[in-house]
Structure formats: structure tokens, C-alpha cells
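Service request form, structural biology core

Requester: graduate student, group of Dr. S.
Request type: structure prediction, single chain
Budget code: on file
Notes: please return the result as C-alpha cells.

Sequence provided:
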Amino acid sequence: MITHLRSTKPVLAFALAFACGAAGLVTPSATTLAADASPAVAGVPAAPRVGELRVAMRTLWEDHITYTRNYIISALADLPDKDAVAARLLANQDAIGAAIKPYYGEAAGDKLAGLLRDHILIATKVVDAAKTGDGDALSTRQAEWSANGKDIAAFLSGANPNWSRAELEAALQKHLDLTTGEVVARLNKDWEADIHSYDLGHQHMLMFADTLTTGIAKQFPSKVGK
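Core staff response, request fulfilled:
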């Protein structure tokens, strides 16, 4: 039985206020958020306020961490919903990528979605390797996960000067460590430790989302109302 997984640096990456629908997701559109934020001028939707941006971003990140947990539970227990949960988790990555397009353009949004989808696909292989106790496969997948995470951290830090690459990697590493704690605890049937890791990870994701909100508001003051 595996009692420890080596730390890696995956990323549960970028979220903007404009949560978009993807693959059946029901989330606010950019137009809806803007229309609800403040009065439009000359027919142009007003920018969302910081508080609305914060709520929308937290929603994306909560979906990410919640469905990551659901996948861990389903995969380790061989539940029949495993593939459906994985599909929903991948859809979240598409929504996150689509959400940055109003700021950074189509190509950047597609690039981020692709990096995030790779992150999730690698994560499923990490869980499988941990479950079977294949140490060599686990090391290989973790190395791939870490490399992918570094690519995403570089992308995010390059997109917004308010976030340093080192700080993003540290925050994302903490997320990985806490998620790893869930996997290890479930493999060892330590349910209290499993729940504790998830609770800490959930709170960490909310703090991370808030950090991104602050950075976006600073970078785009004309697009984010007070």
C-alpha cells in the first residue's frame, strides 16, 4: 500500500469573473455578469464590480476542486460514474479557458484550456498509478504533471504582471500537496485525514481565487468596476 506520494506542481489554473458555459455547464455569461453589474452606457454593458468578479472566480475554482475530489473518490473506488465525473472536470477547464478570452483573446484562452485539460488527463493517470502501486509509472506521471504545472504557471505569470511566477508555483504546489493528502488518506482508509485535507484544500482554493481577482482588477481597472 502506498503511504506517500512525492510532491509535484500541478496547476488548477486561471479563472476570471466571466464564467462561461462549456459542455453543458450552466454558468453566467460575460454579458449576463456585465448587465447585472451596473448600468450600461450608450448600450455598452458595464464592467462587473470587484465583488461580482470575486464570486464568479470562486465559483470556477470551487467547481474545479469539488469535481477533482469527486474524481478521486470515484476512481479509487471503481465507481461507475468515474468517466462522467472526469468529463465534467474537463468541461471546467474549457470554461476557465473561455473565461479569459474577453481579456487575452481567443488564442490565449484556447492555450490555457489545452494546458489545463492536459493537467487533468495527467492527474487521472497519477491516481491510477497510485491505486495500482506502480511506483515507476507514478514517478513518470508525477514528472509529467510537474512539467505541465510549470508551463501553466509560466503562462499565468506572463499574462498578468501582478503575479510572480514563484508565488504562483508556491500556491499551486500547496494545492497539489493538499490534493495528494486526499489520495494518500483514501488509499489508507484514513477518512478523517481525507476530509481534513479536502477542507484545507477547499479553503486554499478560495484564497487563491481571491488573489487572482485582486490581480485582474489591478491589471484591468477600466474593465472591473469598484
